[in-house]
Amino acid sequence: MVDRKDLDKDKGNGYEMIYKLIIIGEKSVGKTTLIQQFVQSPNQTAISKFIGFCQTKQIQLDINEQQFRIKLVIWDLPDSDQFSLSHQMYYNGVHGILLGFDLTQLQTCFNLKEWIAETHRCGLAEVPIVLFGNKSDLMEDRKVHQEHLDYMKLELGIVDFVETSALTGDNVASLFDLIARRISEKIDL
Ligand SMILES: Nc1nc2c(ncn2[C@@H]2O[C@H](COP(=O)(O)OP(=O)(O)OP(=O)(O)O)[C@@H](O)[C@H]2O)c(=O)[nH]1
Ligand SMILES: [Mg+2]
User: Fold this and answer.
1) Is 105's C-beta closer than 6 angstroms to any atom of ligand 1?
2) Which of the residues 95, 114, 167, 182 could staple to 128 if both were Cys, CB 3.0 to 4.6 A apart?
3) Closest ligand 1 atom to 27 CA
4) DSSP 151
């Protein structure tokens, strides 16, 4: 759970907060590319090649007509085991989760439930999740259609869904804005 007292406040310049995000999903859905597109930097801070990499980016959010400066710390897990967040360092203190699949590979949707179950096993049941379908630029190869999406959202109990292209950048910033907004709502700023 997000605890407000853990968040660093700087009233002089609006609020300053740090949200830790993890990005999960099947292999090759575009998790790493999405983070790189968002932060516009190929340089990742490697914590360990077995544990993960993280990138940071500051965003501005307008909530209830107040400007909030939020630093996002985004964790990418390389070579993830199936459905395994495997290392405590990865999921400790997580404020938000991005769960992704590939719009051109229907099978990347089959295990979304397992990924959610894993987040619950790691104590993240109360943490906001936004689902994203990546590779929206590959329109002709699209295999995940509206009926699949409707079924998935119902089955997974997820309301928030964004279609992204990590290649063109389409909706990438909106995805990160949305998860930051959901976290902020949870904290009840
Ligand atoms: N056309 C297209 N290709 C993409 C997009 N996002 C990622 N890719 C490509 O998909 C491949 C896999 O992308 P990655 O970012 O490595 O995927 P990942 O989810 O990090 O994969 P793992 O780390 O192995 O789990 C790469 O060849 C990317 O260039 C996208 O939005 N559109
Ligand atoms: Mg990757």
Assistant:
1) no
2) 182
3) 25
4) H
Q: Rounded to an integer, what distance in angstroms lies between the CA atom of residue 117 and that of residue 108?
A: 16
Q: What is the CATH number of domain 4-186?
A: 3.40.50.300
- Letter for the amino acid at 180? A
d(CA 171, CA 186): 23
Which protein residue has the closest C-alpha to ligand 1 atom 21? 28
pLDDT at 15: 62
Our mutation pick for probing the ligand 1 site, out of 23, 24, 32, counting the most ligand atoms within 8 A of Cβ, is: 32
Reported as a pLDDT band with limits 50, 70 and 90, residue 172 is very high
Mean of pLDDT over the chain: 87
Asked whether 33 lines ligand 1 (CB < 6 A), one says yes
